[in-house]
Amino acid sequence: MINLFRTYNPLNAIWLAVLLIILRLGYIIDAPDQIQFIFVEPFARLLIPADYEFALSPMMNISLAGVLVFLQALWFNSMVNSFNLLGKPTFLPALMYVVLSALFVPFLTLSAPLICNFLILAMLQKLFATYKIPDAKSVAYDLGMIVALGALIYLPFIFMFIIIWAGLVVFRPFNWREWAAAVIGFATIFFFLAVIYYLTDRLPLFVKIWLPLASAFPTTIHISSYNYLVLVPVAVILLLCFLKVSQLFFRSYVQTRKSFQLLLVLTIVAGLSFYIKKEFHLEHFLLCALPLAIFFSYYFLYASKRWFYESLFVLLVASIIYFQFNTF
């Protein structure tokens, strides 16, 4: 299957849709009676007063999540190819994102992190484009607004503000106006939220929005041991990817090297930002799926031993399906 997706062929979208359905089939067959979907943070419920958490049936919830993943995968693949991040046109980024977005059962339903992946795509597209533009103040302002909107949906997304400044450091010469524009863009959204709080006589509660940011970082993370098993092929692929990147890194274009540096920072920031949520859920790590998909694509695009990388990919897909049917 890897060889099929190595080349850029629009017809691969059909096979991508088939794989997406297969990866969700186990959960569809044994879906719970109700699936909760929380679209915004509690402090932003003033913007959406209606009850919607259980408005969708389980089948509709899973199906809609699959459609969103499919659309994100196509957008993601188009963006990677347009900026030539992998050096060759390919359909592997879409394939890797579809697979990684099915890694754990909580990934298969509608969730705030899944919605926020659209915002990450928008951020990456704007940040990659700043490399060749003379003035990025308006782009930085837009990026600040995007992070603020993401924080309304899912509070840990607020740490994506680090990615804005990291992107400006990587792609741009220092310009304090661009850095300030990002702050102003972020503040604009929360200024209007504060106005809504004021008009509804809840302004003292506005301060409590920021209290989770002072939470202590946890020393332990409780995840089922069976979830670690599905991560074994992921860890192997990631290790092989970094070995491949280290071999070819300095042969790449400067923009490509800078982009990979930003993606590494994005993976770390997204992965570690979970701690400000009182109730930790695995779907948080969907925020890491996009940058990891590029790293995975890089390995599978340049790997030379077909029998090995095809077997490794089959093992990854098989383990995902197996743990959907076996929850133990």
Descriptive terms for the model:
328 residues, Beta-carotene 15,15'-monooxygenase, globular, DUF6427, mainly alpha, transmembrane, 0% strand, membrane
Shape: globular
Number of domain modules: 1
Distance between the termini: 30 Å
Strand content: under 5%
How many DSSP-defined strands? 0
The H/E string reads: HHHHHHHHHHHHH
Description:
The protein is mainly alpha-helical and 328 residues long. It has one domain. 63% of the residues lie in helices and 0% in strands. The protein contains 13 helices and no strands. The chain has helices at 2-6, 12-29, 58-82, 92-100, 112-129, 137-153, 161-171, 176-199, 203-206, 225-248, 254-272, 289-302, 306-325. Helix 2 runs parallel beside helix 13, helix 3 packs antiparallel against helix 4 and helix 3 packs parallel to helix 5 (112-129).
